[in-house]
Specification:
mainly alpha; 11 helices
Amino acid sequence: MEGFLGYAAWRWLFLIEGYLTVLVGICGIFILPDFPSGPASWLTPAEHALARKRMEEDSECHSAAEPTSFSGFSDVLSLMTDWRAWLVGTASCYCTTSLSFNMFFPTLVATMGYSPTISLLLCAPPWVVSTITAIIVARHSDATRERFGHMVFALSMLITGYILAMSTMDITIRYLSLFLMAQSPVSNAVLLTWTSNTFARSSSKRAVAIAFINTAGMLGSVLSPSVPFLYLPYVTIDDIQRRYIWVSSWGPIY
């Protein structure tokens, strides 16, 4: 699609991904029921029962699984004055910021000197491993009912990956660092579950909390390419033009 309607192919990639995401989100409003007891023709009676059972288990010892009314602004106000929401929101923002390398993942792989086709193929394995790790860590976190340690485990792999990427020009080690860096989304998966656990006493407040913390987390994507502005006047014009979470002149000399 290079040049179609005057846009470069890479721009079309982002446009298509973005529009499809918006389309799926709009469809979800009409397809997904608010609660398991709601109408959903695409679920069998057994699946309905399983969904209700999971909601009951999730709400065990707390409020009702499905609230009879929504408190409206009072839930929003309650969340805005809850220090835990701001703490978890800040953690989510930083976790998302730590993921900002994935915007340039193909570029990082391409620096190893392989052809474009091989470079793109090499992008897949780190994320396949990340998916497997996420499933294992999430299941273990649920089984042990522990969140913090599992997040630290994932973020420690990310930090190790960053250190390896900055410390050597060896192709094998650099590719290994990408596998470690790709484990960062595992922490986000655990944090989302932690959010539900933290605000489990009110289903309506929990819904507001998830929306608020997700929004705070996405601010990390806005912050990532803009951080160098915080370091003015120590940042050059070239740094600003190529701004990223780290000032470009600090980066590894790939």
